[in-house]
Design goal:
The protein contains four helices and eight strands; from the N terminus they run ββααβββαβαββ. It has helices spanning 23-29, 46-58, 110-123, 147-155, and strands at residues 8-9, 13-17, 65-74, 79-89, 94-101, 137-142, 159-165, 168-174. It has an eight-stranded mixed sheet, with helices on both faces. Helix 3 (110-123) links the parallel strand 5 and strand 6. Helix 3 crosses helix 4 (147-155). The longest helix is centred in the middle third of the chain and has 14 residues, at 110-123. It is globular, with a radius of gyration of 15 Å.
């Protein structure tokens, strides 16, 4: 069972719960191969995104885990520009987050704004309106050469730790930090 995440807003962005219907627009947003420099892989087609979004919106098979995904709409443009996501371990009250902003929208502070908004949303007790998952700890994994992503994590109040996973540094923030 995947209880859908609540939407949230920032100064310039609307974070909307993921829908399969966003696949066509998101394929264009995420179509630059440069977005995969640090993560590997290649851009997905609209059909591939539809399939992935279908799996993601169906939710985790583990009842103790929530797969929460939002697309980012730039309010002034009325267009999608990227996404944020959180895998929430309900019993552990821990959320692992990630963000991607399309190349066309980079350099405008949208990734920082979205990550800050997501962390605030998760640590403030944002659930699904049903008293479910609240994160006390938020973490991300950042490639050591990805300075822009490190800056985004730092802006969201995450700090690098000495832990590593698959060549990426573990960044973390607890509810009492930042």
């Amino acid at each position: 069972m995947n209880l859908e995440p609540e939407p949230f807003t920032t100064a310039r962005l609307d974070a909307l719960p993921l829908r399969v219907a966003y696949a066509d627009e998101m394929a264009a947003v995420l179509g630059d191969p440069a977005l995969h420099t640090y993560t590997g892989g290649a851009p997905e087609t609209a059909d591939e995104l539809r399939a992935r979004y279908g799996r993601q919106t169906a939710g985790s098979p583990d009842p103790g885990v929530r797969w929460w995904n939002w697309v980012l709409r730039v309010r002034d443009e009325g267009r999608l520009a990227g996404y944020v996501q959180a895998t929430v371990d309900v019993p552990g009250a821990e959320a692992e987050i990630a963000w991607v902003v399309g190349t066309r929208w980079q350099g405008r502070g949208y990734a920082k704004e979205a990550a800050e908004g997501l962390v605030t949303h998760l640590l403030a007790g944002a659930g699904t309106g049903a008293g479910t998952a609240v994160a006390r700890t938020v973490l991300a994994h950042i490639h050591p050469d990805h300075d822009a992503s490190a800056a985004v994590a730092g802006a969201a109040g995450l700090a690098p730790t000495e832990r590593w996973c698959d060549g990426e540094r573990h960044w973390e923030r607890g509810a009492g930090k930042g």
